[in-house]
Amino acid sequence: MIKRLLATLFPIVFMPYMIFAISLSTIQNNPSQYEKVFENAAWTIYVDTNSIESLRYSPPYYTLKAKYYQISYSEETICEFNIVFDYDYNYSLETMSKKIVKDYPYYSEAEKSKLLLQSMDKNSGMTCCINKVHLWTLDGSEVGTTSLYRRAKCGTRSIVYKIGLYIFSKYYDRPFGISATK
User: Fold this and answer.
1) What angle in degrees, to the nearest 10, is found between the helix axes of 109-122 and 93-103?
2) pTM for the complete prediction?
């Protein structure tokens, strides 16, 4: 009787720990859920496409929340970031392009492109806040958790900007800014 009770309670008690464990093999074996958005020699970043959700839809303002994973091969760790992006569509690629075409009709295409890049470098229209970070080993053992609540502007040349672009385009099926290759 006690064994049966323990057998029933064990999964219920430890289910939260088993559900949230993440390992490198889980990420790599589920490419439809974990989309690779950036990679270099030291690490790779994946976005959990199932975690993307809208917190605000009030055009021209949008707020999206998601999780992304940074795999550090040399440190043998996985960092899970819970991040919230705020988007101001007044500074999107589409809106800024239309504004520049309207305001500078006699500029050449090259001059308009240069002005567009300069404008977006000044204000990308995107900010982000990393709320919580979980640290795992590559085999899925949890190392720890911390809360950051760090808000920052997303520069167009930053990795977090690329992540924000991916999340926006994945959720709304349209671009927000200037995309770069993975």
Assistant:
1) 130
2) 0.84
